[in-house]
Hints:
By secondary structure, the protein is an all-alpha fold. 79% of the residues lie in helices and 0% in strands. It folds into 2 domains: 1-61; 63-95. Helix 2 (14-26) packs across helix 4 (42-60).
Amino acid sequence: MSEQKLKNRRSFTAEFKLKLVVQVVSGQRTIAELSREHQIKDSVISHWRDQFLERARQVFAPAPTPSERVAELEREIGRQHMELEILKKASKTLL
Length: 95
């Protein structure tokens, strides 16, 4: 992407995105209406809606217990340790 295109790219606040998504999800306005009014592509608003709906599930998900969190972190450490060992072996063969 050219530098000029990046400079012209608009950015929107989280509050603005939420306002539009709530209007779409509640049925107050359609994506097409909001797209025309704010001069934003339909696909952008659809993407915001999809992100909102996907992350909304996390609000109602039960929080992991401390022991579950510790187990999750231990698995992550083990995975990273294995990756590190593989990378060490690979770097030795390349040198």
